[in-house]
């Protein structure tokens, strides 16, 4: 078989395989949504479903995974802080609050602390 | 007097000036130009600076930084006479295919696959954008009609992978199929990745209508923690079972991602995740960049085929972008206008640059349109797609 013909074969076969594999993944992701996506939605609604009213704002919180008594207060504080940052008068919906891990390298943390100490 | 003259001649002959070739001079100038572009113009400085400096080091006359060790056998005993240059030893990480999977590990730890999980159909855009790989592969084969240019099937496959817009994949595949082309292919792949904001927008505008570019997409659903954790395991299993040759790249990508996502369950994994994202990634990028640059030896680099590879690389990027956008248009039609075709161009990997380009072009036509997260879906799908395409090429041509 000539290189050009073999190249055509590789092209057709290659594109087909790429599409088949990724279409398979699409199907798996869709299945995953059915099994785990829906459950999560119910879970999050059950964990915390609080409505906090700030200055004319309607706030819905649905992802703080904590059973602490002051969860609502924490939500209110975070929402109020965001609202204040954005100018106060707005229709703010907080749909999810997730605690983010600190990914700063250790030397980055030290330099931040040094910066703060120098300013204090 | 003659003694001083002879000593001066000896001194001159021991310097690099006495043995420097015109090819080395050109490569030194090219490396300085690349350093300028990286530092002054901000073209992928993280990669281009090590590559350009590796190029500079490898083309220093008589320095021998890429020379291998020299052994000598005396009375039947083999001893190392000269250990060789530092870059030669660092290059073994490329030669043995160690650095690219480690880079994928770090990329996995830095990548959020949630936009793809939330909108799984966007994975097809990542597949469509691989069109660039295969059309360029054919283009390279057809070039043997021209005088002085002839690429073998393996070389054509390595050139085509530039269209995946994924540096580590290009290096990985080229090293397996056509190591003699590693220098030009790596330089072309990384240079075009830096030029994505210039290459893609004209193609995106040419292939879409104003109405299509203005489409505002629905907000993505939240993705559960369980989905995030199961995703890397499933992708590894499915891709590796279908295409074992892609297992190393996809497996390491997904391993990094699993560590990232599992931090929520086991906070102790945060140490591994941070190392993969920062220290390990940075060290491997330095080693990979400097040694890939060092493969751009003047005698081997300054050939007509390098120009051909650079031209084919541009075609590969353009075709990949066009493939993604055209498939985006098809999805726009099939979904009744719910998909903005501009996110298709992000299907070429180049994470997250290509997604940013989709966002930027979208906002030019509708300032309230936020396509970034929608474009991240095809963008990360492109990484998987190009690894799968590399696996196919490796299976069929290797």
What is this entry, summarized?
The complex is a heterodimer of chains A (120) and B (398). With 120 residues, chain A is mainly alpha-helical. Chain A is 62% helix and 8% strand.
Q: How does this structure look, described?
A:
The complex is a heterodimer of chains A (120) and B (398). Chain A has 3 helices and 2 strands, in the order H-E-E-H-H. In chain A, a hairpin with a 2-residue loop joins strand 1 and strand 2. Chain A is mostly helical. Chain A has 2 domains: 47 residues; 73 residues, no CATH class. A two-stranded antiparallel ribbon of chain A has the order 1-2. Helices cover 62% and strands 8% of the residues of chain A. With 398 residues, chain B is mostly helical. Chain B folds into 2 domains: 87 residues, no CATH class; 304 residues, no CATH class. Chain B contains 21 helices and 2 strands. Chain B has a two-stranded antiparallel ribbon. In chain B, a hairpin with a 2-residue loop joins strand 1 and strand 2. In chain B, helix 8 packs antiparallel against helix 19 and helix 12 packs across helix 20. The longest helix of chain B has 31 residues. Chain B is globular, with a radius of gyration of 23 Å. The model of chain B has no long low-confidence stretch (mean pLDDT 91). Classes of the chains: A mainly alpha (120), B mainly alpha (398). At the A-B interface, helix 1 of A face helix 7, helix 8, helix 9, helix 14 and helix 16 of B.
